[in-house]
Amino acid sequence: MAGSVGSDHVDVVGTWVTADGHIRQELLPDGRYEEARGERRRAYTGRYTVTGSHLDYVDDTGFTATGDVRDGVLHHEHLVLYRERKPA
Questions:
Q1: I want to staple 18 with a disulfide (CB 3.0 to 4.6 A). Which of 1, 23, 24, 42 is the partner?
Q2: 53-74 burial: b if 16+ Cβ within 10 Å, else e
Q3: pTM
């Protein structure tokens, strides 16, 4: 399941960013993602699924990765990403 579909799954749709802002991961509602690294927009693209608070990623090149949301923080392999808050 992608995004926030179903009450048993964490809502992950939106932009997640590392503390230094270098890596930005946008999780789209249709189950796709785009990851930017520094000035490289769309450095990685692919699809993701959510099961509970666990994410499985499959890059468009076939590379796979996982992540978990714990206490509102996305732990994606070796990265720690925080949900980007939009100014009110």
A1: 23
A2: bebebeeeeeeebebebeeeeb
A3: 0.86
